[in-house]
Sequence to fold (1037 residues):
Amino acid sequence: MIYKEFKNKKRMVYKVFAYTFLLLGSITMLLPFIYTFFSTFKGPVEIFEFNWLPKNFTLENYKRVFKETTIIRAFFNTMFYIIPPITVGVLTSSMAAYAFARLDFRGKNTIFFMMISTMVIPAISILIPSYILFVNFYGWGGTPLPLIIPGMFGAVLTTFYLRQFMKALPVELEEAALIDGMSRGGIFFKIILPLSKPALVTQVILSFNGAYNDYLGPLMYVGTDRDLYTVQLVIASLNTPLHQEYNMLITASIIAVIPTLILFIFAQRYFVEGIAFSGMKE
Amino acid sequence: MKKYLRRVYSILILVLTMTTLLACGKSDGDKTVIRLAHWDASGSIEKVVVEQVVKKFEEYHPEVEVEVDIISDYETQMPRIIASGRVHDVFLVPDGNFGQWVKTGGLLNLTEYINNSEEFEIENVYSTAVDRYRWNGKIMGTGDIYALPKDIGPQVMYYNKDLFDEFGVSYPPKDEPMDIYDALEMWKEFGDVHSDGSLGDDHIYGVPQMTPEGLVWSNGGDFLNETRTEATVNTTSVIEAYQFLANAVNTHKIIPSGTASAGTNPKSMFVTQRAATLIDGRWSVATFRNIKDFDWDIAPVPSFSDYPWKNAWSGSVGYAVFKNTNHPDLAYKLVEFFASKEGQRIMASTGFSIPLYNDQETVNAFLESEQGKKPENVEVFLLSAQNQPAGIWQYLPGTRWKTTLDTESSVLFSEDEERRKTASEFLNDINDDLTDIIRTDFPELFN
Amino acid sequence: MKSIVNKIIGRFQFKKYSMKRNDTIWAYIFIAPLCIGLLLFLVFPLLYSIYISLTNYDLFNAPEFIGLDNYSRMISKESEFFLSLRNAFIYAVGVPIGMIIALIIANILTGKIKANTTFRIFFFLPTIVSAVILTIIWKWMYDYNMGLINEIIKIFGFEPIKWFSEKNAMKSMIIMGIWGGLGISILLYIAAIKSVPKALYEAAKVDGANAFQQLRYITFPAVSPISFYILVTGLIGALQEFARFQVMTNGIPKNTLTPVLLIYKYAGGEYGGFYGYAAALAVVLGVIIMLITAINFMLSRFWVYYEK
Fold:
């Protein structure tokens, strides 16, 4: 009896600790955004002032962003550029990840480490050779193809992550399937992919977020043609050194967050589904 | 899974169709196409104005079609375009990038064209605007001309009239630069510094930011020698200028110290009335015209008395013609049109720059067009444009020496009194280091 | 069914051999797209960069071979490369700190917590906004006179902090880095914790393991492969960090000059287009990061728990 009381007390302490931690953390994360959100209702001069609530509340910024920029068109452009590399890319990455995680083949470790090594050279220092390759060799200048095609072959970062995830999956199911005579291809599609759902969803969210917020890539390949702009390029075009209109910049940025937010909230469900799968495994 | 794959296929096909469409989109006709690369530093207005100028140009030259590429993040993008060899016939050159780009040999020498043309009246243009696009094969500022200025953006001192009234301080004169020590007294009026050096809650800074260039030049000093092979920051006039800055921050507290204000936009300090004045360029007028909380005007930037009007740097961008263009004559014609009186008239309407010409006719037309708009003392811009040279980033094709000077100069303002150096100690220490950097980075200057 | 399984087990010795051959074929099929992609799109830029590092490339004229000049310049007196390396290593301290915070939060968020979806969104918010807006937000947070952090500090009666003084600048950047990276790490940890078989925890509970023991003996080993991933990519990312520094300090004070920022200054307009030297810096930095990554892989044997 006493033990149980003690245990309850302990649980209480943990709960108090957990909620305090979460609340403090969330405040740290949220405050800047609340401030930024309020700032979207300020005028071009008031934006420089450090007051929380706008003195002269105005919706002008939102109207102007939709009227003066091509943000809607840019949104569809962005989706068109990033959906193929994400959907196809996560699939090709997970195939490679499975091979590196579970299959034995000659040169596995060497190939894997060489792959990881492609990440060590900072991206900005291969921008110019990449540009020459895509524009002069493949002849893709002025088109979004350099943003779309390479990603469809998979990404090292995604592969690395999925390999780590798959290495942690229990091997029993696979062994049983092998004994049942299932091919490696079958195992991958019928067992590994479903089991990796939380990881795949995570990667879709992260790849989407990364590609959606990418600035340098789109800047290089479609940055000279306003009709091909992505959302981030539209935002950056509001950040002009000689004529700063922070109010427009901030408002466009807040609008731009919405799609990722919706995707994230929607994808939450698949984490719940992940539990059901892990329950089934044993 | 099959359903998923089918979806993937359909997207693939979509991509391919899109590409074909994009590739076949353009057809040229019989006109000669001139491609122009332009930045968008002042936002959407820039695009409108450039297109207006281009339209007018096409009216005069019906055989030409100008294709304008407005390129965002211009300074980042242009190098890649140069590397790929697909450079536009005409492209914008910010004065800070001029040295690096002209050194590669990619810019067409325009001197002959200018001598044989009447559209660009070089004698009526601010010489400071043209000189920064000269290059003699080694250094800039002298020699042949490789680009024509698009604009000139002089710097002035903006001041908050309401604050001046409230503190009973008389407005700074508009005809000539205030002596820097008089200005110091003026700026101190707004401060609330306790006897122990701490700041009161109502402390208002005199000026949120001041760069050393104008002080050094107006005091008769310079950062490098004429041939740009040696640093000269250990001379008395440079030392005096730097010591003035150090005292203004450390003792008088009329300028916030760099470390305290890092992150604070100087413009925002002026707009929110935490600073009484602001040294800034013509380009800020467009933003300031939206200020509703107080009245403001402009005056020349305060300076030392040797060369009072060499009181700050001015900004500029120019147009250059790509050396390997197929249509050098037409490309030059376009560059020239931007720099001609007619082109300038169209562009000055934005309020970001002033016209390049200083003849009476142009000046009167400009003053007339500005009437009824802020600032009242608009002629201060014209006076300031006369003598303000390019910034010191234009002394050499690269600025590692300047970055080093700026970074290290923080010891002048160190909070830790023991680490703090006087201007004389600091500049004597660093002078040879700067020369060494120049030697490493630009060996060709020493041949 | 059972008889078939028995038959296969009976021939297992033989089967194993052909299985392995089969595995190899499947493995090559599986890694083919990724390898082809890397060959087509990444190998050339990488090799070209190495070549450029041996030349005095200025973008416009053909590169001229100058041997190892660019590399010897790196060790010259006023070279800032070693300073910038040191800065990057200090910055990388934020990686493990961020991992620990992320693991704690992820652990709480996968427990019985009310409104955990809402909390997850809050923590993920910094991750989904663009870099431009993040720097605007942080400049405002760190403002000495009116910034949010100093305003709060003043409420509690302390002296406001100069966030970008020489003493504090790197700390400020580390805090900003942790804040911005937390969302991704939390998300990765949540996905990892969610896939730990529930039965393990139930069994532990039956055995009387408390919450901390469950964390120590079940959660921690189970998420160790993901921890390894976060550590390796986090370190690579930290040593290559640049955009944030460029906007926030641009290398002033000196202890916030990072290697990639230095590369950017040399290759961009500021220092004057020394593309060969910039490429040499990138190659050396790449080799250093590769060594660190290799060490990480070797050390992983001692703390990363893989199934099998």
